[in-house]
């Protein structure tokens, strides 16, 4: 219990909760470990639970009618997900898959509903999570409409550097290993196009790759790519 409570305190999303609110979360949730590539829930599943990512990384994706994957986002520690299916009878619109061993706190809907009735302020945290995803979707639509593949890749690299970046002597390393296909799924492009663009960015000195991790070398030049439009 104390370990769980400390984990919650360490996460930005729960730093403003008082002792009683933290106690409620601990008493009404349970911890679950998921291994790499394990699916937490599939698109069209009807399980109504709220998930809090305490440790690890999780990707949210959807499939087209032809079976093509579109990755919406990659979640990091402190992110909440599963909330999209809580407030109506519709199933999950996304699939949640673990990218590296993840520890989650899981709160069933019937427990969460009782908590919100007792502490309405808790609903604000869920609203914030919904707003974050709405902004992300809006940003992705803007990129797809106004930017070419190079601009979308530059935008993705900037976001990943902000979310998963770590300063090193040469620049900023993105502490996340992604295949070219996974990057293509994130920006709505093909693997071949992504490979060509990454090689071009490397040749131009914008980035490099060491031990399968991307290192951003020139943020200013990368930012100029964001202005690329059709």
UniProtKB/TrEMBL annotation:
Residues 13-133 form the Cyclic nucleotide-binding domain. Residues 147-220 form the HTH crp-type domain. Keywords: DNA-binding, Transcription, Transcription regulation. Gene3D superfamilies: Jelly Rolls, Winged helix-like DNA-binding domain superfamily/Winged helix DNA-binding domain. The keyword Transcription applies. One of its GO terms (cellular component) is cytosol. GO terms for molecular function: DNA binding; DNA-binding transcription factor activity. Transmembrane segments: none annotated. It holds the Pfam family cNMP_binding. The keyword Transcription applies. InterPro entries: cNMP-bd_dom, cNMP-bd_dom_sf, Env_Response_Regulators, HTH_CRP, RmlC-like_jellyroll, WH-like_DNA-bd_sf, WH_DNA-bd_sf. This is CRP/FNR family transcriptional regulator, anaerobic regulatory protein. The lineage of its organism: Bacteria, Bacillati, Bacillota, Clostridia, Halanaerobiales.
């Amino acid at each position: 219990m104390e370990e769980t409570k400390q984990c919650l305190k360490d996460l930005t999303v729960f730093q403003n909760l008082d002792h009683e609110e933290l106690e409620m979360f601990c008493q009404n949730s349970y911890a679950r470990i998921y291994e790499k590539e394990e699916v937490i829930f599939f698109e069209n599943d009807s399980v109504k639970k709220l998930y809090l990512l305490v440790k690890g990384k999780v990707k949210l994706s959807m499939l087209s009618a032809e079976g093509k994957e579109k990755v919406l986002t990659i979640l990091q520690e402190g992110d909440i997900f599963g909330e999209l299916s809580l407030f109506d009878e519709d199933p999950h619109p996304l699939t949640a898959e673990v990218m590296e061993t993840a520890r989650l706190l899981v709160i069933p809907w019937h427990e969460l509903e009782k908590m919100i009735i007792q502490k309405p302020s808790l609903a604000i945290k869920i609203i914030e999570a919904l707003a974050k995803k709405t902004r992300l979707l809006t940003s992705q639509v803007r990129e797809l409409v106004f930017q070419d593949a190079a601009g979308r890749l530059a935008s993705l690299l900037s976001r990943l550097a902000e979310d998963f970046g770590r300063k090193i002597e040469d620049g900023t390393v993105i502490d996340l290993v992604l295949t070219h296909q996974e990057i293509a799924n994130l920006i709505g492009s093909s693997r071949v196009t992504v490979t060509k663009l990454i090689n071009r960015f490397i040749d131009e000195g914008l980035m490099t790759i060491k031990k399968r991790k991307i290192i951003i070398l020139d943020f200013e030049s990368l930012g100029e790519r964001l202005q690329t439009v059709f």
